[in-house]
Amino acid sequence: IPQKPQIFGHEQPIDEEKVARLTCRSSGSKPAAQLRWRKGNKELKDEGTEVVEDPNGKTFTVSSRVEFRVTKEDNEAEVTCTVDHESLQNSERSTTQKLQVHCTWRTGVMGQGRGAGDGGRWSLTAIPLCSPQEFLWEKEGSTAPLQRSSNSILIFPFLNKSDSGTYVCTATSSMGSVVAKYNLDVSGKRGCRAPSSSCPWLAQPPSS
């Protein structure tokens, strides 16, 4: 009877857009078992199968390899290797591992509202390219954080000139943290200065 398969190659996080190379191995089958892969509900085609006789001279160890390019959406995705063998009849013997994808951390902040003059409603939204669990909003020069939550939006219900300044958003996930800044200049003419050139990924606020 084939042993429960083992998956190798997932021990370290895989960089986003790199190729994942995983190996599945099961021993103790006679005749040699077959291995199949899936990622989530999608079948994966193997890149090759190797069959080696076990030291007892009676059973076989089967190894199968898969390769695929990972994206940030593959973080926490489940990859499963299943053994098919006549001795298992209608039962299934499989192993599942979760992928850890090391995202290329980038983020930006976008301003949105009806202009940036006194009394206008305005919000800042962090736009991450990974999946943060927490957003910390701060204003440079202030000692206390403005907001710490899973919500990426910082809202100004009644914007006024005292809200002018540089706002900092720190997005954090299990893979690390990244910081983005937004320079907000509130004027009485309901206008907003363009973001600082030192943060080229920031979105231009809409004009009034």
From TrEMBL:
Alphabetic keyword roster: Disulfide bond, Membrane
Name of the protein: CADM3 protein
Subcellular localization(s) per the UniProt record: Membrane
TM regions (residue ranges): none
UniProt topology in membrane: Single-pass membrane protein
BP GO annotations: homophilic cell adhesion via plasma membrane adhesion molecules
Chief site of localization: membrane
Gene3D superfamilies in the cross-refs: Immunoglobulins (2.60.40.10)
Protein source organism: Centropus unirufus
Domain Ig-like: from-to ranges: 2-100, 134-187
Any one of the GO CC terms: presynaptic membrane
